[in-house]
Automatic annotation (TrEMBL):
Transmembrane regions listed in the UniProt entry: 44-65, 71-89
Protein name as annotated: ATP synthase protein I
Any GO BP: proton transmembrane transport
UniProt-listed InterPro entries: Atp1_alphaprobac (IPR016989), ATPase_put (IPR032820)
Family affiliation: Belongs to the bacterial AtpI family.
GO cellular component: a single term: proton-transporting ATP synthase complex
Function: A possible function for this protein is to guide the assembly of the membrane sector of the ATPase enzyme complex.
UniProt KW keywords: Hydrogen ion transport, Ion transport, Membrane, Transmembrane, Transmembrane helix, Transport
């Protein structure tokens, strides 16, 4: 076999491989954005647990200082839970706002939105 024939065969093989690679590339993520549903869910769970943990810590600290065991623990646990839920709701509102803005930028209206202003 001569060198020019080998070069032609190598180019053909490279072209075939390139075309196969293009057809077998993995599809882009469906969401196409920075967040996936699982990431959002874990973020919200973390926010709730952090609120509870901070509330428990503050409550235990006040109970130790004031000697009011367990009243401050109960009070601040409930306040921490409320703060965690509020933070989760703010995160959900921010994500919904970003989705509606992206839908408007793409030229479609999000039919699932309850808020006519969003």
């Amino acid at each position: 076999m001569t060198d020019p024939e080998r070069g032609d065969r190598l180019r053909e093989l490279e072209d075939r491989l390139a075309s196969l690679r293009r057809t077998q590339e993995p599809a882009a993520p469906k969401g196409g954005g920075k967040y996936t549903q699982a990431n959002i869910a874990w973020q919200m769970v973390t926010e709730l647990v952090a609120g509870l943990g901070i509330g428990v810590g503050i409550g235990m600290g006040f109970d130790a200082i004031l000697g009011t065991r367990p009243w401050m623990l109960v009070l601040f646990t409930l306040l921490g839970f409320a703060a965690g839920v509020k933070t989760m709701m703010n995160t959900a509102a921010d994500i919904q706002k970003k989705k509606t803005q992206a839908a408007r930028a793409a030229g479609t209206q999000d039919s699932g939105s309850q808020d006519p202003e969003a």
